[in-house]
Amino acid sequence: MYLDVDDDDWDEYVPVIEYQLGEEGKASLSLFASVLEPLVESYWLTTTQLLLLLPLSPDHFLTESGLVGHVQTIAKAKAEKAQLYRVESCSSDTIRNAIKILQDRQVLVPAQNGDGSTPHTQSLEVANSNLLVDIIKQLTLLRS
């Protein structure tokens, strides 16, 4: 049986537990957050830019290196305007990891030509835009 998190009876399945942190716990949590912030932010940037690139024409394919370069350019511009929490969010390695996760989740898949053949380049396309939007929503919550 799977639990539906949108179920009105959610509180019956999972009790609400409140925790209070001492100063040591707050310091540990702050350290943990500072480690995760660049990852979340980089993944958020990657997914939102991918969503903005969705209306590409059918004959225009997206390569991994092209997407990494695009996201990194946007990230650097945002960092210069102090619109990022962490400058580490501009890391190409983290952006590549975000793309790999999107591929593992079948959000990004190898692109297909109109005839069903694979293009000669390592091109990608969005296979599940609804899941992409759901991931963006979750990452947006984590960023706030």
UniProtKB/TrEMBL annotation:
<dbReference type="GO" id="GO:0031966">
    <property type="term" value="C:mitochondrial membrane"/>
</dbReference>
<dbReference type="GO" id="GO:0019432">
    <property type="term" value="P:triglyceride biosynthetic process"/>
</dbReference>
<feature type="domain" description="GPAT/DHAPAT C-terminal">
    <location>
        <begin position="19"/>
        <end position="109"/>
    </location>
</feature>
<dbReference type="InterPro" id="IPR022284">
    <property type="entry name" value="GPAT/DHAPAT"/>
</dbReference>
<dbReference type="InterPro" id="IPR045520">
    <property type="entry name" value="GPAT/DHAPAT_C"/>
</dbReference>
<dbReference type="GO" id="GO:0006631">
    <property type="term" value="P:fatty acid metabolic process"/>
</dbReference>
<dbReference type="GO" id="GO:0004366">
    <property type="term" value="F:glycerol-3-phosphate O-acyltransferase activity"/>
</dbReference>
<dbReference type="Pfam" id="PF19277">
    <property type="entry name" value="GPAT_C"/>
</dbReference>
<protein>
    <recommendedName>
        <fullName>GPAT/DHAPAT C-terminal domain-containing protein</fullName>
    </recommendedName>
</protein>
<dbReference type="GO" id="GO:0006072">
    <property type="term" value="P:glycerol-3-phosphate metabolic process"/>
</dbReference>
<dbReference type="GO" id="GO:0008654">
    <property type="term" value="P:phospholipid biosynthetic process"/>
</dbReference>
